[in-house]
Design brief:
By secondary structure, this protein is α/β, with parallel strands linked by helices. The protein contains eight helices and 18 strands. The protein folds into three domains: about 150 residues, GTP1/OBG domain (Spo0b-associated Gtp-binding Protein, Chain: A, Distorted Sandwich), CATH 2.70.210; about 160 residues, P-loop containing nucleotide triphosphate hydrolases (Rossmann fold, 3-Layer(aba) Sandwich); about 70 residues, GTP-binding protein OBG, C-terminal domain (GMP Synthetase, Chain A, domain 3).
C-alpha cells in the first residue's frame, strides 16, 4: 500500500427522518387520537484511530463520505430507524482540519471524533397533542445533517526520528537498530516516505519506535527537496537523532540540519548527535571528531560498530523522557445549528429582513411548509418567542420579505 499522508473529502451526515401525521382508527376506539411517531435521527460520520493502518491511501481518491438518513416516523407511535453511522478508520496520529483550522488530533488508538453530526428527527403529531389541542394535524420535518469539507493530515508517531541530509545512511542505520528493512541505495533520496522500525531487547523496559525521515536539504522548511513534506513527521518524534556523515563535512551538515529544524519550529526538541560511516576514517580523524563533537556517538551502520551503544543510549533517553503525554482528541466542537449568540438578531438585508438565532433557525427548518397547520404553528411560535415584535421594532411591514436561514416568506 502506498504511503499517503494527506487526504481531503466531503463528509455528509444523514438527515433526520420526518415525523408522522397519523390518527388511531382502530375499531371500538372512536377517540383513539393522534398517534404519529417521530422520525429517527440521522447517522453521523465518525473518524476513529486504529493501529491497523499506517497510511491515508484508502482515502486519497475518495470524494464524499456519507452516513445514513433517519427513517420517517409512522402511525401507532412508531419511531423511525436511526440512520447508520459512517465510521472511517484512520491511522493513529491523524489530525483533522476544516476551513477554520484544527478540529481534532487522533493521537491515541481507539480515539474518535464526530466529523459530521446527524440531523435530529422531527416529532410526529402525537407529540403536539394537549388538553386543548386534541387532534393536531401537523408534524415536524427532520433536520439536515452537517456537511463540510475536511482535510486529514497524518503525522507519524515515533519515539526517535532519524534526521539527516540525503545519503548519510539513515536507512542502513534503521536496519541495524531494528527489524525494519527499508530500501537502501548509494544515491540521494532513497527514502521517499517515513519508514518505521521497532527497537526491542529483553534488557529494555519497553520497545521504542524509530522513524527514518526522508533526507532534508537546505531550504527544506521553505519547500525544497523531499524532506519539506515530512518535517511534520519529525514534529511527532520525542527525540531526534541527528545523523551526520562522518566522512563528508559533518560540521556543515549539522549547521544545515539545526537551521532547518529551527525554521520549522522544532529546535527545542531533545537531540542526540550520531556520526555514521566512521569505518571510512582513520584513527586521527576519529580523534578529531571526538573533540569537534563531544558526546556524539561514532557508529558504522555498515559494520555494526557502535550500533549497540547507540540503541542503549536511545532507550535510556526514552526512559528519561517518560511516557508519551496524551494529546487532546477534540480541539474544538463544531455544530451547524449553534450560533455564537443566543436569542434572536434581526438585520435589514436587500430590502427585506434577515433573522438569525439558534431556536428560530431550527424552527424554520423543522416546519412543514406544505401543511397549513404547521405554518400556523410556526407563526404562533414566532409571536411567542418575540421574533414578530423584534421585526416590527426593526421597521418590518406586512408584505416585506423575511429570511430565516434558507427559508424565505412574507411578513404578516
Amino acid at each position: 500500500m502506498q504511503f499517503v499522508d494527506e487526504a481531503s473529502f466531503l463528509v455528509r451526515a444523514g438527515s433526520g427522518g420526518d415525523g408522522s401525521v397519523s390518527f388511531n382508527r382502530e375499531k371500538y376506539k372512536p377517540r383513539g387520537g393522534p398517534d404519529g411517531g417521530r422520525g429517527g435521527d440521522g447517522g453521523s460520520v465518525i473518524l476513529r484511530a486504529t493501529e491497523d493502518l499506517s497510511t491515508l491511501e484508502p482515502y486519497a481518491h475518495r470524494r464524499v463520505v456519507k452516513a445514513g438518513r433517519g427513517g420517517h416516523g409512522s402511525g401507532n407511535n412508531r419511531t423511525g430507524e436511526r440512520g447508520d453511522d459512517a465510521v472511517i478508520e484512520v491511522p493513529v496520529g491523524t489530525q483533522v482540519y476544516d476551513e477554520s483550522g484544527l478540529l481534532a488530533d487522533l493521537s491515541e488508538p481507539g480515539s474518535s471524533f464526530i466529523a459530521a453530526r446527524g440531523g435530529e428527527g422531527g416529532r410526529g403529531n402525537a407529540s403536539f397533542a394537549t388538553s386543548t389541542r386534541r387532534a393536531p394535524g401537523f408534524r415536524e420535518k427532520g433536520l439536515p445533517g452537517e456537511e463540510k469539507e475536511v482535510r486529514l493530515e497524518l503525522k507519524v508517531l515515533s519515539d526517535v526520528g532519524l534526521v539527516g541530509l540525503p545519503n548519510v545512511g539513515k536507512s542502513s542505520l534503521l536496519r541495524t537498530l531494528s527489524a525494519a528493512r527499508p530500501r537502501v541505495g548509494d544515491y540521494p533520496f532513497t527514502t521517499l516516505s517515513p519508514q518505521l522500525g521497532v527497537a526491542d531487547d529483553r534488557r529494555y523496559r519497553r520497545p521504542f519506535v524509530v522513524a527514518d525521515i526522508p533526507g532534508l536539504i537546505s531550504g527544506a522548511s521553505e519547500g525544497r527537496g523531499l524532506g519539506n513534506r515530512f518535517l511534520r513527521h519529525v514534529a511527532r518524534a520525542r527525540l531526534l537523532a541527528l545523523v551526520l556523515d562522518a566522512s563528508e563535512d559533518p560540521e556543515g551538515a549539522e549547521v544545515t540540519l539545526r537551521g532547518e529544524l529551527y525554521a520549522a519550529g522544532l529546535s527545542r526538541k531533545p537531540t542526540v548527535t550520531v556520526l555514521n560511516k566512521v569505518d571510512l576514517l582513520d584513527e586521527e580523524l576519529r580523534d578529531y571528531l571526538r573533540e569537534a563533537f563531544p558526546g556524539a556517538l561514532q557508529v558504522s551502520a555498515k559494520t555494526g560498530e557502535g550500533v549497540e551503544d547507540l540503541r542503549d543510549l536511545l532507550e535510556a533517553r526514552m526512559r528519561q523522557l517518560g511516557d508519551r503525554s496524551t494529546g487532546e482528541q477534540a480541539v474544538r466542537a463544531h455544530r451547524v445549528f449553534r450560533p455564537t449568540w443566543k436569542g434572536v438578531r434581526v438585520e435589514k438585508e436587500n430590502g427585506g429582513y434577515a433573522v438569525a438565532g439558534e431556536s428560530v433557525e431550527r424552527l424554520a427548518l423543522k416546519t412543514d411548509w406544505e401543511n397549513p397547520e404547521g405554518v400556523e404553528r410556526f407563526q404562533r411560535e414566532l409571536e411567542r418567542s418575540g421574533v414578530v415584535g423584534a421585526l416590527r421594532r426593526a421597521g418590518a411591514q406586512p408584505g416585506d420579505e423575511i429570511r430565516i436561514g434558507e427559508t424565505v416568506f412574507d411578513f404578516r
